[in-house]
Amino acid sequence: MTTAGGASYAAAGVSIEAGDRAVELMKEWVEKARRPEVVGGIGGFAGLFDASALKRFERPLLATSADGVGTKVAIAQAMDVHDTIGYDLVGMLVDDLVVCGAEPLFLTDYIACGQVVPERIAGIVKGIAAACAEAGTALLGGETAEHPGLLDPDEYDVAGSTTGVVEADRLLGADLVLPGDAVIAMASSGLHSNGYSLVRHVLLRPADQGGPGWSLDREVPELGGRLGETLLTPTRLYTLPCLALAERLDVHAMSHVTGGGLAANLARVVPESVSVRVDRSSWTRPAVFDVVADVGDVAQAQLEEALNIGVGMVALVAPDDADAAVRLLREHGIDAWVAGDVADAGVHGPGGSVTLTGSHG
């Protein structure tokens, strides 16, 4: 038996026309995120990148990363603000490459949604493209998939992958880290894109479920405005400043502070021959982290395990270059400071460990 008028893709909840309209709206923004090596435009089955650009390298190592934004997208959806979440996606991708000294070349995105609303999809891509342009990365292509029945009409998720390149003899990593190296901390812009399951649980859980019953439009004096605006603050991009740092100074390793927090992520680039100390008193923890801790009665260890506590990127540099590193990063608009030091294994803790000491100012 067939229904009146017969079945169709549109009747199943997928609109080809809306998808085409979304592509037209996003073309303007994608064009802003080009590099000279990009061949053709969007709309094909694959993005093309002229690999002859790699001839300038003696031994090019390709680096790749894939990631998403996580539950921060729930904040964007609730606030109906979609042109900033792209910064979070790009930040999670390209700055994972930068830690090994790689220059991100191109990025592709994937947007899954319950219903294609062209203006909303274009807004997401606008943010992705703007962030790519800031990071010097080409937005090479992507995919928008409509999944009615799997996602509600106003729901979506974003993910992506990126590819970069680094000269083999310029590769950064744990094998370069030495006792005496300085820990250079770079300020985060806020929560970035990690720990939002904890943050939403603490701040947005209804009162009848044991939460504070806060709404996203709540004015929070400690935050200087509405809660939702603070939670939606885009992830800071460290790409070009960190590439400049690695190019000009004696940088040994870098760590992108994402899920797992400062100590765990920094430990990923620390060899067993050394131990690292990071002094909390070297920076003031931003207010949003204090609000989460106070409202949810979150222990410091739990907070530091889930959130970046104000440090989004770390570089381990030769001691003689510590002051120059801070100056260079500040010249690039990144607040930075010496936050600790590297010593032989056993001085600050077991080999390969990162220890947080002191209290925030």
From TrEMBL:
Q: Which domain of life is it from?
A: Bacteria
Q: What are the PurM-like C-terminal domain coordinates in residue numbering?
A: 179-346
Keyword list, A-Z: ATP-binding, Cytoplasm, Ligase, Nucleotide-binding, Purine biosynthesis
The subcellular location is: Cytoplasm
Q: What HAMAP family does this protein map onto?
A: AIRS
> What is its pathway?
Purine metabolism; IMP biosynthesis via de novo pathway; 5-amino-1-(5-phospho-D-ribosyl)imidazole from N(2)-formyl-N(1)-(5-phospho-D-ribosyl)glycinamide: step 2/2
UniProt organism field: Aeromicrobium halocynthiae
This chain's protein is named Phosphoribosylformylglycinamidine cyclo-ligase
Q: Which InterPro entries match?
A: PurM-like_C_dom, PurM-like_C_sf, PurM-like_N, PurM-like_N_sf, PurM_cligase
Task: Give the EC class as a word.
Answer: ligase
Instruction: Give the chief site where it resides.
Output: cytoplasm
Instruction: State the family named in the UniProt similarity comment for this chain.
Output: Belongs to the AIR synthase family.
Limits of the PurM-like N-terminal domain = 58-166
Family annotation (CDD domains) = PurM
Q: Which Pfam families match?
A: AIRS, AIRS_C
Report the EC number(s), separated by commas if there are several. Answer: 6.3.3.1
Write out the catalysed reaction: 2-formamido-N(1)-(5-O-phospho-beta-D-ribosyl)acetamidine + ATP = 5-amino-1-(5-phospho-beta-D-ribosyl)imidazole + ADP + phosphate + H(+)
